[in-house]
């Protein structure tokens, strides 16, 4: 597939600066550009690469002002990062999609598979499963009894969807993720811990992406819910009866404990921990390694928080600045105590 600079400008709403007939057939990072490749410049720290890149076309923001000659054809757009994402989506959508059911797949006779699906070798689909149209099920996926999967969802190898769970349309489940394993529910007794049966399900709405080896536990009763547009990175743990609001994103190694409710458009950086039975308001931002244990700030929504326990990010920064001054302060206090003792002894 070959695109001209003019075609790219038309698709992205941009303007061409250079040769409108310049063509590309692939993508490359700006520092690794080759002839016939499209690159982009969004971070000013990478500006020096645009003057030496061999890429044929570079997407830049409208306000970019070069400090020297740019040999590549530039396409100016409102947001270069968003525009390249759209172009990559277009490129991927034009790739030929596999269809058909491999002879080595096991599909129960009661399961229903929509048209134009691909089911790879060693996939196991249990009884009463329903899979929509245009789905791609890669090798070694296991789908349990009565699960429901919407249209155009892709499930990568070794993912496991337990019985009764519901997956929406246009979702992506990466390799090794587990949807619907038992929630961590045990009742302490004099003889140990009695398992509390987890009889609920997991419900994943449309346009959700779940990273490799991420686990979403089924609820004790009712449903653990992942709302539309949520994006979960690799190695995320969502416990039983949690609800994650629409368009929230979570980076790797985030853990959300049982029965917590996370609002819409929240952003959790890597290794964030959220205690159980908490409410997190819309558009809350938790910086990396924050531990949310409670408090009203997170409930209100819109807060930016850091630390453990998580507090307002500006307060956390001031506290850390003070902590860095602690050794000098302790030394000063010790010297003052010594002077006071000397004054007392000289009376």
Outline the structure in words.
The protein contains 6 helices and 40 strands. A 12-stranded mixed beta sheet has the order 8-11-14-17-20-25-28-31-34-37-39-40. The protein has a 10-stranded parallel beta sheet with strand order 9-12-15-18-21-26-29-32-35-38, with no helix packed on it. Strands 10-13-16-19-24-27-30-33-36 form a 9-stranded parallel beta sheet. A hairpin with a 4-residue loop joins strand 39 and strand 40. The chain is an alpha/beta fold and 347 residues long. The longest helix is centred in the C-terminal third of the chain and has 20 residues, at 326-345. Helix content is 18%, strand content 29%. The chain is flat and about 95 Å long. The chain has 2 domains: 3-93, Udp-n-acetylmuramoylalanyl-d-glutamate--2,6- Diaminopimelate Ligase, Chain: A, domain 1 (3-Layer(aba) Sandwich); 100-315, Hexapeptide repeat proteins (UDP N-Acetylglucosamine Acyltransferase, domain 1, 3 Solenoid), CATH 2.160.10.10.
